[in-house]
Specification:
alpha+beta, 3 domains, two-stranded antiparallel sheet, elongated, 17 helices, about 400 residues
Length: about 400
């Protein structure tokens, strides 16, 4: 890879013709249209988050005369003076956004937009020279180098790296759909998917659902196969089918539904028939049941009936000791085992008195059949019988 150092370009040069897309959350062009600020292999603009602390820090550095670090531009074709940013798009976008009056910074104790600055400060910003390396090389060289970069201390995550490796039609269209903070569907999606749309978490989820795996290699294979597709209909249709299934089965959205493995749940249960009204009533009942300690497990439980998902509350230690003492006293009186199931047998354990440490508490009437987790529904069984009987 060939690199050339340039120090002649100023903030004014780089930001000439700057455009910013609020819909896509990215800087688009600079250098009078000759600089692509955010090519598809780049992440979305993140510096505006957290009240814009990072973009304000960039401008404060410029105003104080501090360097903002090296910038790296890729020159895709040797015969054209057109560039795309490899490293520095967050900083360049911050410069452009400030000059476009899209945010303010504190100057002399007052919040100041670019146009409200004193003339000498505006000129100081615009005339600031930047340090830029122009890189030229084959795509695989550029992408390999890009993968090693940490931008402004924020490491690329797995999906951002995959976007860079497989940039093309598919990534462009997929980001427009799933990485767009202005997408009207986000309010619905956020009920079921956890993450940051600008960090590609929703796109990542869509890809995991369609490949039925969270493995980077499998997702990469899918992106490679579809890299130059002119539509993402399969990805969108699969994603929407799962979202629609969730909304059909569950009439109410609970906070605990966010981040569940909906792709796996869909694949496992979508062919089953469910009464949404009955499920809603059962879910409401489970939310009110103090014995259910894992509310997130409720949704898969009502789909498949696995009681262990609910983490049913254990009997209190005081309850177990009281029941143990009661059972043991009665067992000694009738000369039978203090394990009710051993006592009805005919083997050598039928009269065995177990130590407290050798027994476990069990529901007389299973929790799944309406039995409560209280002293009236508690019995102590030897560990062998308790494990054989199963939980709840």
């Amino acid at each position: 890879m060939k690199t050339t150092l340039r120090t002649d370009l100023t903030v004014a040069d780089i930001c000439a013709g700057f455009e910013f897309s609020e819909a896509e959350g990215k800087g688009l062009f600079g250098l009078n249209g000759n600089l692509t600020i955010q090519p598809e292999y780049q992440r979305n603009y993140l510096y505006a988050q957290n009240n814009g602390e990072k973009e304000k820090a960039v401008m404060n550095s410029i105003l104080k005369g501090y360097p903002i670090g090296l910038l790296y531009f890729n020159k895709p074709r040797a015969d054209e003076d057109k560039y795309e940013i490899l490293d520095g798009q967050q900083r360049v976008t911050s410069l452009g956004r400030y000059i476009k009056n899209l945010f303010a910074v504190e100057v002399d104790g007052h919040q100041q937009y670019f146009d409200s600055l004193a003339q000498n400060l505006r000129e100081k910003i615009l005339k600031t020279q930047l340090t830029i390396y122009i890189c030229e090389g084959a795509e695989n060289e550029i992408k390999a180098w890009f993968k090693t970069i940490n931008i402004a201390g924020i490491p690329l995550n797995a999906q951002e790296i995959l976007n860079s490796v497989y940039s093309g039609n598919f990534v462009t269209l997929a980001k427009e759909e799933f990485s767009n903070s202005q997408n009207s569907n986000l309010n619905v999606w956020k009920g079921y998917i956890k993450g940051n749309v600008l960090r590609q978490d929703f796109l990542r989820t869509a890809l995991e659902w369609i490949v039925k795996s969270a493995d980077d290699e499998k997702i990469g294979e899918y992106m490679s196969l579809h890299r130059w597709d002119k539509n993402i209909s399969a990805l969108k249709n699969n994603f929407n089918e799962i979202i629609n299934w969730i909304e059909k089965v569950f009439t109410d959205t609970k906070s605990e539904m966010c981040g569940l493995e909906w792709g796996r749940l869909y694949e496992t249960y979508h062919e089953n028939k469910y009464d949404a009204v009955a499920l809603a009533a059962e879910i409401d009942k489970l939310y009110k049941d103090e014995a259910v300690t894992n509310k997130r497990g409720i949704f898969e439980y009502v789909l498949g009936g696995e009681v262990k998902l609910l983490h049913i509350r254990f009997f209190e230690e005081s309850t177990k000791k009281t029941v143990y003492a009661r059972q043991t006293a009665k067992a000694n009186e009738i000369e039978k085992s203090n394990c009710p199931l051993c006592a009805i047998g005919s083997n050598k354990n039928s009269k065995k008195i177990y130590k407290y440490s050798e027994m476990d508490a069990d529901h007389v009437t299973a929790w799944s059949k309406g039995g409560a987790t209280d002293i009236k529904n508690c019995e102590m069984l030897c560990k062998t019988h308790n494990r054989a009987k199963g939980n709840c």
